[in-house]
TrEMBL record:
It holds the Pfam family NYN. Residues 7-165 form the NYN domain. This is NYN domain-containing protein. CDD domains: PIN_LabA. InterPro entries: LabA, NYN. Transmembrane segments: none annotated.
């Protein structure tokens, strides 16, 4: 469903894509992801959206954010909000839906095809609006996890649904071993 001469933009809901890939048991190689969509059309922009805990000295996502920024992704971040829920559990809130939606609407007149990496049903009205503007929309997520990571209404609204698991061989890398697993392997081989 891609044409070589169409102008493409990628919109990656970072936490949603991470959760979908994790549910399928693989890590995404973002360099390969970018190359795959550069092959499919004229890639104008690749946006990545994530919330960051600003008060932490070290955020586990910071190296990825820095790498993506250095390697041609347009990074859109905002501070995550920390709060304590009614049961006294520490929670983090960092929804990037509005930022992604505004950017997609602004870019719509300059692209032919938008690829949305998210299964969040809240994006259905965005997809519908982009389609009314003549933009084709592909959604990348998964129905192969339990429960499925894509909202049915989003999948049905999209022009094209791309199963994330089907991209595993093209954009995936095996999950990294933990230090414990490495030490176990070394001990059993030694």
């Amino acid at each position: 469903m891609f044409y070589k001469d169409e102008r493409l933009a990628l919109f990656i809901d970072g936490s949603n894509l991470y959760a979908a890939a994790k549910a399928l048991g693989f890590d995404i190689d973002y360099k390969l992801l970018r190359q795959e969509f550069e092959r499919r059309g004229k890639l104008l922009r690749a946006f990545y959206y994530t919330a960051l805990l600003e008060n932490d000295d070290y955020s586990p996502i910071r190296p990825l954010v820095d790498w993506l920024h250095y390697n041609g992704f347009t990074m859109v971040t905002k501070p995550a909000k920390e709060y304590t829920d009614s049961q006294g559990r520490r929670k983090v809130k960092g929804n990037m839906d509005i930022e992604l939606t505004v950017d997609a609407m602004e870019l719509a007149p300059r692209v032919d095809h938008i690829v949305l990496f998210s299964g969040d049903g809240d994006f259905r009205p965005l997809v519908e609006s982009l389609q009314r503007q003549g933009v084709r929309v592909s959604v990348v997520s998964t129905i192969r996890s339990q429960p499925p990571m894509i909202a049915d209404e989003l999948r049905r609204q999209a022009d094209n649904f791309i199963e994330l698991d089907a991209l595993r061989e093209v954009i995936g890398r095996p999950p990294r071993e933990t230090r414990f697993e490495r030490e176990e392997a070394t001990a059993s081989n030694g």
